[in-house]
Amino acid sequence: MIGIRADANECIATGHIVRCMSIAAQLIKQGEQVIFILADLYAVELLERNGYEYVCLNIDWKEKEKELDAMSKVIKDWNISILLLDSYQVTLQYMNDLKKLVKIAYIDDLRAFEYTSDIIINYALNAENQWYDYARKNGTDMLLGAEYVPLRDEFRGKRLTIRRAVQDVLITTGGTDSLHVCNAIASRMMQEKMFLDMKLHIVVGPFFEAVEELNQLASIYENIVLHKKVTRISDIMLGCDIAISAGGSTLNELCALGIPTICFAIADNQVPGVEVYQTKQLMVSVGDIRKNKGYIDQIILCVEKMCQDIDIRIGFSERQKQVIDGKGVERIAQRLMRLI
Known about the structure:
By secondary structure, the protein is α/β, with parallel strands linked by helices. 36% of the residues lie in helices and 18% in strands. The protein has 2 domains: 162 residues, 3-Layer(aba) Sandwich (Rossmann fold), CATH 3.40.50; 166 residues, Rossmann fold (3-Layer(aba) Sandwich), CATH 3.40.50. The strands form 2 sheets. A 7-stranded parallel beta sheet has the order 3-2-1-4-5-6-7, with helices on both faces. A 6-stranded parallel beta sheet has the order 10-9-8-11-12-13, sandwiched between helices. The relative contact order is 0.13.
């Protein structure tokens, strides 16, 4: 049995759970049994909708070391031999105590401390071996770079067809939108004449605070389409010519499909990824919008340029398809199974 320890809630959104679900699906295809271990019930609907088993610890998701006794019991009760950890709240003590019971794989975005896990997964486009020299000396297996991006099957073997005229624009911030960014961007775009004939597709995440604001906006402008409880976001993405997206796993999905994208950060952990996509000329970034008051005007300008020049969009799409091949979950699953 392989256990996956991850959470989703109004603070951390669904990114951790979603990428772990991608890995879980591949493990199950390979004949492995998988159980998700949750702090609370926030992610239950998402897991049940996708048919995954889970155990709830009924404990504060932020206090990892306080859940060690409960985790130990779950590991023994479910006969878990490998534990995949995906949480920014993991501490060295937590990792070391659990390693006495199981083999551990850790999905790392932050390089917060010197990890003692058996596997380190960091699929950042700029991940470097030298970041983990200390781990290599201890025999840690390292899965680094874009070839390990854990995408779901729906993103494999599909590419956007670039249309000469931009007709549909996607706006997404992932599972949460505490800054009410979707409403702000869409409202501003509706003040520009060139966007009035386009459809704006807004993906409404499960932890959005401003749903009523978005409902009201959509009632005023018939070309604003709200997508709620989305099951296959790739279909929505492929129906759009341009995306406006917050950082996180969504950028990898858009890249895999070849969607010309204007991206931004709304959380600390999104800043490095947004910068990398900009540096590698895979997307246009307007940076950390918490520090950039003029971000909406910059986004509008970028969208206008993409609308006016098809070659810009073709260029982004062509560069993107060289980066992510969609086979990351297969590679991760194979390496996890070597620990058995």
